[in-house]
C-alpha cells in the first residue's frame, strides 16, 4: 500500500512537481483532440478544393479525404478573372499599407517617448483617448469623402494607417531603451534622427516584427472599409471577393473567372480554393515572425 501511494505522488524535479504518467496521457489526449478540432476544418477546405468534381458532387460539397488530386479550381481562379485581380489589389494594400503604418507608428512612438519633445503630452493624451473612443462609421465616411478618397484604394489604407494600441506598445519599447547608449551617442555628436535610425530602430526589430504582422494581417483581412468606400467591383480586395462568392454564396461564372467555357468545377471547389488562397499567405508569414511574439509584446508592454 505504501509503495502504491508513493507511486501516485507527483515527481518533484528541481522543486517543481511534474505530472505522473496517467496525467500526461490524459493531457496528451486532450491536446490531440483540440488540435484535431482546429486542423480538420482546414484539411477539409483544402481537400475539397483539390478533390475531383465527381467526388465533390457525390459527397454533397465537402470532402475530407480526396481520392485524387485535381487543381482545376485553382487554374480557374488564377486565369485572370476577379480573383486574380482582387489578389493583386490585396497585395498592394497590404505591402503599401503595412509600410506606411510602420513608418508612421515608429516615428510617432519615438516622438512620444522623447521627453521634452514638441507637444509630447498633448499628443500622448490624444493617442490614449483614441483607444477609448472610436470615430464612428458616419464621421469616418464623411472624412474619407471630403478627402476625395472614395472609390480609391487609398481609402483602404489611410483611415487605418495608425493604430493607437501599436503606438503605445512601440512608445513603451522605446522608453525602455538603455539611456546610457543614447547618451553616449549624443556625446559622440549623434542628432535625434541618427539616434532614431542607427540605434533605436536596429534595437527594435522584435517589436516591429510583431507590429508589422498585426498591420499586415489587418490589411489582408480587411473588407468592411471596402464595403463602405468602394463601389467599383474591379477594385475589390480579396476579402470582398471571399464575402461575395463564399459567404453570400454568389455563383462564379466564366465571365467572373475570365474564361470562355461552360465546364466549370463545382461551385464548392471554387469557393474552397478562394478560401485557401486567402489563408495561405498568412500561414506562410506567421512562422517566420512567431519567435518575436513573446519578446516583442512583453518587452513593449511591461513598462509604460
Automatic annotation (TrEMBL):
GO cellular component labels: plasma membrane
CDD domains, sorted: TM_PBP2
Entry membrane topology: Multi-pass membrane protein
InterPro entries linked: MetI-like, MetI-like_sf
Compartments in which it is found: Cell membrane
One Pfam family cited in the UniProt record for this chain: BPD_transp_1
Domain of life: Bacteria
This protein's UniProt keywords: Cell membrane, Membrane, Transmembrane, Transmembrane helix, Transport
Residues annotated as transmembrane: 25-47, 59-77, 89-111, 123-142, 154-174, 207-230, 270-289
Residue ranges annotated for the ABC transmembrane type-1 domain, each copy included: 87-289
One BP term from GO: transmembrane transport
PANTHER family documented for this protein: ABC TRANSPORTER PERMEASE PROTEIN MG189-RELATED-RELATED, POLYGALACTURONAN_RHAMNOGALACTURONAN TRANSPORT SYSTEM PERMEASE PROTEIN YTCP
Sequence similarity: Belongs to the binding-protein-dependent transport system permease family.
Name under which the protein is recorded: ABC transporter permease
Organism for this UniProt entry: Brachybacterium ginsengisoli
Lineage summary: Bacteria, Bacillati, Actinomycetota, Actinomycetes, Micrococcales
Amino acid at each position: 500500500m505504501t509503495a502504491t501511494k508513493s507511486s501516485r505522488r507527483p515527481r518533484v524535479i528541481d522543486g517543481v512537481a511534474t505530472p505522473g504518467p496517467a496525467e500526461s496521457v490524459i493531457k496528451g489526449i486532450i491536446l490531440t483532440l483540440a488540435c484535431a478540432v482546429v486542423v480538420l476544418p482546414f484539411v477539409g477546405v483544402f481537400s475539397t478544393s483539390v478533390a475531383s468534381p465527381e467526388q465533390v458532387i457525390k459527397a454533397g460539397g465537402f470532402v475530407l479525404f480526396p481520392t485524387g488530386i485535381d487543381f482545376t479550381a485553382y487554374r480557374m481562379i488564377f486565369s485572370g478573372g476577379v480573383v486574380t485581380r482582387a489578389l493583386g489589389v490585396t497585395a498592394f494594400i497590404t505591402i503599401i499599407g503595412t509600410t506606411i503604418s510602420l513608418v508612421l507608428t515608429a516615428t510617432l512612438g519615438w516622438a512620444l517617448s522623447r521627453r521634452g519633445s514638441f507637444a509630447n503630452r498633448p499628443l500622448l493624451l490624444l493617442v490614449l483617448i483614441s483607444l477609448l473612443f472610436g470615430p464612428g462609421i458616419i464621421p469616418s465616411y464623411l472624412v474619407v469623402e471630403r478627402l476625395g478618397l472614395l472609390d480609391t484604394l487609398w481609402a483602404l489604407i489611410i483611415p487605418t494607417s495608425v493604430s493607437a494600441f501599436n503606438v503605445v506598445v512601440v512608445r513603451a519599447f522605446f522608453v525602455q531603451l538603455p539611456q546610457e547608449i543614447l547618451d553616449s551617442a549624443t556625446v559622440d555628436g549623434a542628432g535625434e534622427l541618427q539616434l532614431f535610425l542607427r540605434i533605436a530602430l536596429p534595437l527594435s526589430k522584435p517589436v516591429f516584427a510583431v507590429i508589422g504582422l498585426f498591420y499586415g494581417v489587418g490589411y489582408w483581412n480587411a473588407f468592411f472599409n471596402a464595403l463602405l468606400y468602394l463601389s467599383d467591383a474591379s477594385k475589390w480586395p480579396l476579402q470582398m471577393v471571399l464575402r461575395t462568392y463564399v459567404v453570400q454564396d454568389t455563383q462564379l461564372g466564366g465571365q467572373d473567372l475570365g474564361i470562355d467555357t461552360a465546364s466549370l468545377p463545382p461551385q464548392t471547389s471554387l469557393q474552397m480554393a478562394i478560401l485557401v488562397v486567402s489563408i495561405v499567405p498568412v500561414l506562410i508569414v506567421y512562422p517566420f515572425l512567431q519567435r518575436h511574439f513573446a519578446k516583442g509584446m512583453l518587452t513593449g508592454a511591461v513598462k509604460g
